[in-house]
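Closing statement on the uridine-diphosphate-N-acetylglucosamine sub-project.
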Amino acid sequence: MEKIKIIGGDPLQGMVKVSGAKNSAVALIPATILADSPVTIEGLPNISDVRILGDLIEEIGGTFHFDGKKAVIDPSNMVPMPLPNGKVKKLRASYYLMGAMLGRFKKAVVGLPGGCHLGPRPIDQHIKGFEALGAKVTNEQGAIYLRAEELRGARIFLDVVSVGATINIMLAAVRAKGRTIIENAAKEPEIIDVATLLSNMGANIKGAGTDVIRIDGVEKLSGCRHSIIPDRIEAGTYMIAAAAMGKEVIIDNVIPQHVESLIAKLREMGVHIETSDDQILVSSNPDLKAVDVKTLVYPGFPTDLQQPFTSLLTKARGTSVVTDTIYSARFKHIDELRRMNANIKVEGCSAIITGPSQLQGAKVKASDLRAGAALVIAGLMAEGLTEIAGVEHIDRGYSNLVEKLAGIGATIWREKMTDEEIEQVKNA
Ligand SMILES: CC(=O)N[C@H]1[C@@H](OP(=O)(O)OP(=O)(O)OC[C@H]2O[C@@H](n3ccc(=O)[nH]c3=O)[C@H](O)[C@@H]2O)O[C@H](CO)[C@@H](O)[C@@H]1O
Ligand SMILES: C=C(OP(=O)(O)O)C(=O)O
């Protein structure tokens, strides 16, 4: 086990390159199950979620050759091997194996997924979609059993706007007989990316990126080449780090339109931002203003940036209120920020931050992926040494985070934890 160490206070300057989007990658890889020949995906992030999905692809008989950026996946010899336990518990997106295996084999057994603990994360809308397409779905001892004689297109209205359910239903529907219409669909850019891959494989999908998606089932999907979109959450994380400590930082390989809600909030705080086709320049201002933020579905402010943004707000003058309407309990980072001298209280689904506070280095623990990002940003701002445990959460979603931040001037490194430290963290 490793920890991240940061000596805070260094100004950030230079260019940081964003990797491919985690939340696309983890759907694109399972989507390849639906093809009958090899698929090449370029620009994948080198994160543990991707590597674990690669292992799962191999567990069901596929091949996954990954060089840290490009993966060649051959689905031709895959079989509907049950995956009730094991690696499926290590990430959230293993739920996409349900839709993809159901779509190809008309049956699947997949354990309930893991991923970040953000309060309840039901998958009832995924199951409602599979059932509407004709699958019988049961939950037996924590694994979902899916079976269908045949899949038939259906009209499905999602009760809640869900990224995972929208993509999973698309995966199950692309090879179903007839037309599927998903209403109240999620509109995140990752959904368009997955629809683009499926279309290049031969699927017939219209409307991805709007709240009505129409899919006309086809019999066969074939291999192709696909280039993934940049990670808007990783880009946002570096933009927030730059707003916290940056002289002038250029975020490279970003689609500025994907982070418009963040750009608007940073400008409201007084941060200077310039955008071009695929870069964003962020220059900070020592006197930042407090702002209120509410997380919403895309194109609203993303819940995945709520935690890192909260760290930044400790530096702003006045009182900020951050409300998470997607995950009302996504506040496990707050106690750790308080340990670092932040003045924050949580009321219901809101965090109330009073600033500015000069954060102080401390030993803290990341409880989940974006809590980890929040603590890294806090460590960059803090006086003295911060030590962050729980690095395995950060490794789920950030490719070379330490190297990228060191490359723009941060004093940050990884170190092996001693047995005693591992014990202390486990018991905390
Ligand atoms: C792998 C991946 O892409 N993860 C992202 C995805 O997660 P995920 O796809 O799991 O999140 P959803 O969009 O499904 O969840 C949105 C909301 O709907 C609720 N819900 C969802 C499904 C369901 O069947 N029933 C239900 O009630 C959830 O509890 C949550 O309150 O979108 C989240 C919201 O943008 C992001 O935080 C995650 O980073
Ligand atoms: C919540 C997240 O991931 P996951 O859904 O994979 O747990 C995230 O990326 O912030």
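The CA atoms of residues 336 and 364 lie 6 Å apart. With this model delivered, the sub-project is considered complete and its resources will be redirected to Aim 3.
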